[in-house]
Design a protein that fits this description.
The complex is a heterodimer of chains A (about 325) and B (about 700). Chain A is an alpha/beta fold. Chain A is built from 12 helices and 10 strands. Chain A has a domain of about 200 residues: Rossmann fold. Helices cover about 40% and strands about 20% of the residues of chain A. In chain A, the strands form 2 sheets. Chain A has a 6-stranded mixed beta sheet, with helices on both faces. In chain A, strand 7, helix 7 and strand 8 form a beta-alpha-beta unit. In chain A, helix 3 packs parallel to helix 6. The longest helix of chain A is centred in the middle third of the chain and has 20 residues. Chain B is an all-alpha fold. Chain B folds into 3 domains: about 50 residues; about 210 residues, no CATH class; about 240 residues, no CATH class. Chain B has a two-stranded antiparallel sheet with strand order 1-2. In chain B, a hairpin with a 4-residue loop joins strand 1 and strand 2. The longest helix of chain B has about 45 residues. Chain B is globular. The chains are: A alpha/beta (about 325), B mainly alpha (about 700).
Chain lengths: ~325, ~700
């Protein structure tokens, strides 16, 4: 991990890594994303939240090249080199630009070991070709060794050293999530897209995961875009939050602002017009089909808790 | 209450059958009855399959003959046995398994502590015994050598094992001393050796004795070199290892050359050659094919180390080494390997080199034409099907392209090339031609998935076959190529060096060794490939293409790569076919051949290189053996019928193949059971190895010293 320098926000607001401009994505008659615009600054942790079906994962798939939106532009501005459009670029090429992602449902290479899983990410940018591999030329061996070392560093970083030789599908859910993050970090990304990393994990694993995300951001200087349902996690990790509903951006701001935003509460709880104070009914309404986390948000999440790593430089 | 008792029963819920017919039909629908019927029918089908063939005049005579009465009882018995085994498999299987495990688990642990070397030595001794008693009873030379070396080294291993404090090097030196002593006794003629000879302890065999002495001296020399290097630099660097390898290669090359030339024309021209002098002193044995093999190994060592040195000089991949040592984490490379230890590999090579020398000519011919070429083909297809997971049903097309390219460049086709080449020099052309065909076919079609790819490749195979059949002006059409493709040959004539060798179509052994050498090279290269970035990327794409894509792995590129590598291997095999059979017929390249090679790969184990070899030996060798020795009433025309049956049985009982690759086995287990196989995903053997390699650092340090 050579790039240990903390993210520098010298340019402040102008230093935009990802800019999504008026993106619209349709599947036949269904509009998944409708005129979505957002910006991600270099070095920040941005969270995208929204009810089920709001278009969060579609947005991710557009950013990582899996879907091609019908309208709008997505520009990626790497640290070195000119800004480039992501629209219509194949996923593996998007990854090589410096965009790495994890998946909502864990997609490990199930029959491979933890080590091999991470190594595939680490190796994808190496130059070894089939001839080199067949003859074990010196370059191949050097690259193999460098890959091994980096893989181990990454596994240490996500605290999975003791699992090096285990088959990835034998890991518990929380460890799988961390493994997926290590694998994505292996490609040396500038931005890491995390699609519901806490899904299916228990509270202590969630805490570890929140710490890990903050460490990835502060120690490795990787910008993070996070989709998450777990409001506690989002509020404790994110520096800025964008709220999607029915494919549209309905709110944007700091965690504290989002918690107080009536539009957001409406989106999550349905019409809260005659229910009185936003936020309060959520806690008082255990019978609703809202996830517990969402209702816990308004009460539990203390704005003072949300840290601001990287703001100081 | 007694009145209600008769009503209660196992079939309480359904209406109890009233009539006899109803009762029978209910019973017949039970699972057991169906299984019984299926078993009996299968047995009868086998009876028909193995029975006498019918004739055109009396087509049913085959069936009636096969089902004639004394004979059919055997098969009915077989059916009943099958039924019993299938029915009681659960109980039987667990009993047998627990019994076997009770015996083998401690043995495995014990073996794992002495590990590969002791296994190797035991196998070498066993090989020696088999050699003297079975393969070649009158040739005690090589067998005795094997037994002697194996026993000496085994003694040494046991010394280390029993007195763990003794350093491995000291034990090794003692072991070598045994070899040297024995060799000396066999070589010299003194009172002691006479006495030992009389009581039968040591044969009076001068070549054997000298051979043993040479081997012991070589072992001592290597040991001394290691000590020297270690004293100077504390560690054997790759560069020095390469230097040693190239020197050893040079020595082998010279020795092999002497063994070889003393046999060939060299004799006639210079009867007083150095080789003759050596052989007069019993330091050299005239053995044509052994000389060639030794020369090949020496040349390979030299070329290999030369390539390394050149690469190093050119600075390819010269990078600052990261300071951290990966080894200290105990990464288990074994988890990805397919079954097989270095020991087994070496003994398999010994057998592959030795055994065919003692076969009868018909078997040797089968070995070359039926097995060896198929091994090459299966190794190539294994890359496509096993590593990359692509179903290629038109594999024979690349074989044909390679063969016809060879025919073109050797001037065997009606159209003439700009220059005529020796088959050796055609190899690169054939490889490139087949690879180009693979890339051209692969680039558009590998975007398709699964079944569609199979259909397109099947079509491609037919296109090539029909093209070869119909383009009479170019390929010679169905009546074959007009001229013969020449045999491989090598003629070196200079002032100091005069050697010539022809791999003619009628003498099979030189030909066999040539293919063997190349097959071993391919296996090494493909093993490296499997455990490299490329192999891992193939596995990743096979398992989850979307995830691989998200990690920057260009799936299409890797699929085309697999296709091209498979195709060029087939093209390479095509050159061998062409020069072996001389004239090519399009009928040699039909779709059945693709299917046969595919079955070899599936039978042996997808993704497993030893599996491809074993598959070829069983699927091609067994029918050839049965046919040659007139065993059972095997009819070659039934080959594909048996092939189909075998494939079905394999898919049901052992989908991972005979020698399964670990990754594949895990994948299959995961899809069938949804969980990782027991004992952290690998079998007991692997976990034993992993444990010993991780938990006993003392052993490792004693090994590396």
């Amino acid at each position: 991990m050579t790039e240990t320098a903390a993210p520098v926000l010298a340019a402040g607001e102008a230093d935009v890594l990802f800019s999504v401009d008026h993106v619209t994505l349709r599947f036949g008659g269904v509009t998944s994303l409708n005129d979505v615009s957002l910006e991600q600054r270099r070095g920040e942790i941005l969270a995208v939240i929204g009810p089920n079906g709001a278009g969060k994962t579609s947005l991710f798939n557009c950013l990582s090249g899996v879907y091609v939106p019908q309208e709008g532009t997505i520009t990626f501005n790497p640290r070195h080199g000119d800004p480039r459009s992501v629209v219509g670029v194949k996923p593996y090429k998007v990854n090589r630009m410096g965009v790495s992602r994890t998946f909502q449902t864990s997609r490990m290479f199930n029959a491979m070991t933890t080590f091999e899983n991470v190594k595939i990410g680490v190796e994808s940018k190496q130059h070894t070709g089939p001839i080199g591999a067949m003859l074990r030329l010196p370059r191949t061996r050097h690259e193999e060794h460098a890959g091994d070392v980096r893989t181990l560093q990454l596994l240490k970083f996500v605290d999975l050293e003791h699992r090096v030789n285990d088959i990835s599908s034998s890991l518990p859910y929380g460890e799988r999530r961390r493994l997926e993050i290590a694998r994505a970090l292996g490609t040396n990304p500038e931005v890491l897209l995390l699609d519901e990393p806490a899904a299916g994990t228990n509270p202590s694993e969630k805490l570890a995961l929140a710490n890990l995300i903050k460490r990835v951001n502060s120690e490795l200087g990787v910008t993070i875009l996070l989709i998450e349902h777990d409001m506690k996690l989002v509020m404790s990790v994110a520096e800025r939050i964008v709220v999607l509903n029915f494919g549209q951006v309905i709110a944007e701001g700091s965690p504290a602002e989002i918690q107080q935003n009536p539009v957001v509460v409406n989106a999550y709880l349905g019409t809260a017009g005659d229910a009185g104070e936003p936020g309060v009914p959520a806690a008082a309404d255990p019978g609703s089909d809202v996830p517990d986390d969402a209702s816990a948000t308004a009460v539990d999440a203390d704005p003072a808790e949300s840290p601001e790593p990287g703001e100081e430089g | 209450m007694t009145t209600t008792a008769p009503v209660r029963g196992p079939s309480d819920h359904a209406d109890p059958p009233r009539t006899f017919v109803e009762r029978v039909s209910t019973a017949a629908q039970s699972k057991t009855a169906k299984r019984f019927v299926a078993c009996i029918l299968t047995a009868l089908v086998i009876a028909v399959m193995t029975g006498p063939s019918g004739s055109a005049l009396a087509p049913t005579s085959g069936i009636t003959g096969s089902l004639a009465f004394p004979r059919v009882w055997w098969f009915i018995g077989l059916g009943v046995a099958m039924f019993l085994v299938l029915t009681f498999w659960a109980q039987l299987g667990s009993t047998v398994k627990s019994g076997v495990a009770r015996v083998t688990t401690p043995a495995k642990v014990r073996l794992a502590t002495i590990r590969d070397r002791a296994i190797l030595e035991t196998l070498v001794i066993a090989f020696g015994f088999i050699y003297v008693t079975w393969i070649s009873p009158h040739d005690t030379w090589k067998g005795g050598l094997c037994i002697q070396i194996g026993a000496s080294l085994l003694v040494m291993e046991l010394v280390v094992y029993l007195w763990g404090a003794v350093s491995l090097r000291a034990a090794r030196l003692t072991g070598y001393a045994f070899i040297a002593l024995y060799g000396m006794l066999a070589a010299i003629t003194g009172p002691v050796s006479h006495y030992l000879n009389k009581i039968g302890a040591v044969p009076h065999n001068r070549p054997l004795g000298v051979g043993l002495l040479v081997i012991a001296a070589a072992l001592y020399a290597i040991e001394a070199l290691l000590v020297l290097i270690a004293a100077v630099h504390n560690v054997v660097t790759p560069k020095r290892a390469r230097l040693v390898a190239s020197l050893a290669g040079l020595a082998l090359l010279i020795y092999g050359f002497l063994m070889w030339t003393s046999w060939s024309q060299w004799d006639a021209t210079t009867p007083n050659s150095f080789a003759h002098w050596l052989s007069a002193k019993h330091l050299l044995v005239h053995d044509h094919s052994a000389g060639l093999t030794i020369m090949a190994i020496g040349a390979l060592l030299i070329v290999g180390s030369f390539l390394w040195i050149v690469a190093e000089l050119l600075g390819i991949g010269r990078q600052a080494r990261p300071p951290q040592h990966v080894e200290q984490f105990g990464i288990s490379r074994r988890s990805t390997r397919s079954m097989g230890t270095p020991a087994l590999t070496i003994v398999a090579l010994l057998v592959a080199v030795e055994w065919p020398l003692h076969m009868d000519p018909a078997s040797q011919s089968n070995l070359v034409t039926q097995i060896a070429i198929y091994v090459l083909l299966a190794l190539g297809l294994n890359v496509v099907v096993g590593f990359a997971g692509l179903l290629d049903l038109g594999y024979v097309a690349f074989y044909a392209i390679g063969a016809y390219t060879a025919a073109y460049f050797t001037g065997a086709l009606p159209i003439h090339p700009p220059f005529v080449l020796n088959p050796f020099f055609v190899i690169p052309f054939a490889i490139v031609a087949a690879m180009l065909a693979g890339v051209l076919l692969g680039t558009p079609t590998l975007r398709l998935r699964g079944d569609y790819l199979a259909i397109v490749t099947l079509g491609f195979g037919e296109v090539v076959f029909i093209t070869a059949n119909n383009l009479t002006g170019i390929t010679g059409g169905p009546s074959g190529t007009p001229n013969l493709v020449p045999s491989f040959s090598l003629h070196i004539v200079t002032k100091v060096l005069k050697a010539s060798q022809e791999w003619s179509a009628t003498s099979y052994m030189p030909y066999y060794y040539l293919i063997l050498a190349f097959a071993v090279l391919f296996m090494i290269a493909f093993t490296f490939l499997e455990h490299s970035k490329v192999g891992r990327s193939w596995t990743a794409i096979r398992e989850d293409e979307v995830a691989a894509d998200s990690l920057g792995v260009n799936a299409l590129k890797y699929k085309v790569m697999a296709f091209a590598i498979g195709a060029s291997t087939a093209g390479f095999a095509g050159v061998f076919l062409a020069s072996q059979i001389g004239s090519l017929y399009p009928a040699d390249f039909q779709v059945q051949l693709s299917i046969t090679v595919l079955v070899i790969v599936i039978f042996g184990g997808m993704g497993s290189l030893p599996g491809a070899v074993v598959g070829a030996i069983v699927i091609q060798g067994l029918p050839a053996y049965l046919q040659q020795h007139q065993i059972a009433s095997y009819n070659p025309e039934d080959f594909y019928m048996y092939l189909g049956a075998l494939l079905i049985v394999m898919m049901i009982f052992r989908p991972q193949g005979i020698i399964a690759s670990r990754r594949r086995r895990r994948e299959i287990y995961l899809t069938e059971h949804g969980v990782v196989p027991p004992s952290s995903g690998s079998d007991a053997e692997a976990s034993v190895y992993d444990q010993t390699s991780l938990d006993s650092p003392g052993y490792i340090s004693s090994e590396t010293e």
